Amino acid sequence: VPRVRCACGNPLSPPVALQANPKRNGQPWAAYQPSKVVAIAPSETTVDSFVIYDHQDHRWLERGRGAVPKPDKPVPPPPVTTPVPSANPPTGTATSAGPTPPATSSAPPTRKPTGPATHTPPASPSELPSEPPSETATEPYPATPTAPSSAPARTPYAPATPPPPPANPYSY
Q1: pLDDT tens digits for 60-93?
Q2: What is the DSSP letter of 77?
Q3: Measured between alpha carbons, how far is 86 from 8 in angstroms, rounded to an integer?
Q4: Do the Cβ atoms of 42 and 3 come closer than 8 Å?
Q5: Three-state SS for 101?
Q6: DSSP category for residue 7
Q7: 58 Ramachandran zone, left/alpha/beta (phi>0; psi -120 to 50)
Q8: In the chain, fewer beta carbons within 10 Å around the N or the C end?
Q9: CB of 16 within 8 A of CB of 8?
Q10: Is pLDDT at 33 greater than 80 in this prediction?
């Protein structure tokens, strides 16, 4: 469960109620959307460790909480899930004039994937979906992380060029 701290490490205070119509000034950055601003609240549960990805070394690590955590431990990458295609086509895309004949078999296909799923990231951030897809995990994370037998096969998506930083991230 992500939580936010200021740059010096202190936890942020609870959100303060704003006036009825707050005024924003300055040049907003391209991806800024006032409707997507979130307030961070304290967790109801204690988080003892965090799983992070080290982009420089291309590995997943578990890091303990606290100002002086224990050394990082290698952990296997999270499982990659691939959504199962829907048996029903999306509405409004039919091209035939007549009704669709019923399927000839009621049994599900028995073909199983032969390799890892591949994902092609969008060419630009504008092609990203406005909402993240719902994900269904096929297997839970292990209760006790174990060291991976080899380096992860793929790295998370990162844009080729990061967006420019805001002129003043503290102005609204």
Answers
A1: 999 998 877 689 999 999 888 888 877 766 665 4
A2: P
A3: 48
A4: yes
A5: coil
A6: T
A7: left
A8: N
A9: no
A10: yes
Contact 148, 51 (CB under 8 A): no
Q: Token pair for residue 24? A: 């924003």
Residue reference for tokens 């304290």: 42
Distance from C-alpha of 11 to C-alpha of 78, rounded to nearest angstrom: 28
Distance of CA 52 to the CA centre of its chain: 12
**pTM of this prediction exceeds 0.85:** no
**Order of strands, sheet of 73-74, starting from the edge strand that comes earlier in the sequence:** 49-54, 59-64, 73-74
Tokens of residue 52, six digits = 């992070």
| Location of structure tokens 């297997």 | 139
Could you tell me which residues are beta bridge partners of residue 52?
61
Q: Token pair 């096969």 is at which residue?
A: 153
Pairwise CA distance, residues 129 & 28, whole Å? 21
**For residues 91 and 99, which has the higher predicted lDDT (pLDDT)?**
91
